[in-house]
Design goal:
alpha/beta, 6-stranded mixed beta sheet, 4-stranded antiparallel beta sheet, 6 helices, about 25% strand, globular
Length: about 230
């Protein structure tokens, strides 16, 4: 049986096959995508050429280490493909993303792509979203008001994300509220409602955006689900 890390490594190498010569691609953020980026570094040395847009400073740093150039999303009209991870994927292919804090750029890049491929291990597949706390990116001004509004409206706990005992700051200098819904029956409706709260920048609900979900299993199997 494969470890979680071995599953992620296998998924990263497998997903690299979807990137063809001279493609314009978006590259996600996180522990599974890390192995994709490392594999792309090897394939670039072997002659694979592609134009990359990053979803985070973390991804930019890894690409720099791998000797892979990247461009701004503003320098291209459209991406052919984005590959990213997820924290949860439901039966309809809706996602919770943002555990790594890059949800804003991840969603912008995904929206600019003709195809969004998600690579996850089997534990991330769920019937209904919500066990993983939903990240909601907010501006820092008046954050407590946004927290209070979400908690009272939905009767849940929304915790300000911290890292090493200080407030977690996103690449765009925002805060994140991790919202403990436990079960999200209507992701599309919740996404719309949260966007109507002043101070909310983006949610970690990716509704109807994924085109393929590739799942790695502990027995070494990999399955592709079209959504």
């Amino acid at each position: 049986m494969l470890t979680q890390d071995a599953i992620k490594q296998k998924l990263g190498i497998y997903a690299a096959d979807f990137i063809k010569q001279d493609m314009r691609i978006g590259l996600g953020t996180g522990s599974t995508v890390y192995y994709l980026l490392k594999e792309l570094g090897k394939r670039k040395q072997q002659g694979l050429q592609f134009t990359a847009v990053c979803t985070s400073l973390q991804t930019q740093n890894i690409l720099t280490e791998e000797g892979i150039d990247f461009i701004s999303l503003d320098d291209t009209e459209r991406l052919q493909l984005t590959i990213d991870g997820a924290d949860e994927a439901d039966a309809e292919g809706n996602l919770i993303k943002g555990g790594g804090g890059a949800l804003l750029q991840e969603k912008i890049v995904a929206a600019a792509s003709d195809e969004l491929i998600i690579i996850i291990d089997e534990k991330k597949n769920v019937q209904t979203l919500g066990v993983f706390p939903l990240p909601v990116e907010i501006i820092s001004f008046g954050w407590k008001q946004v927290q209070q509004k979400i908690e009272t409206t939905y009767n849940i706990t929304a915790k300000l994300r911290e890292k090493e005992s200080t407030v977690f700051i996103t690449d765009h200098k925002h805060y994140i509220l991790d919202c403990y819904f436990n079960s999200i029956e209507n992701p599309s409706q919740l996404n719309t409602e949260l966007h109507l709260i002043p101070g909310v920048v983006e949610t970690g609900l990716f509704v109807g955006m994924a085109t393929k979900i590739i799942t790695g299993f502990a027995d070494g199997d990999i399955k592709i689900r079209a959504v």
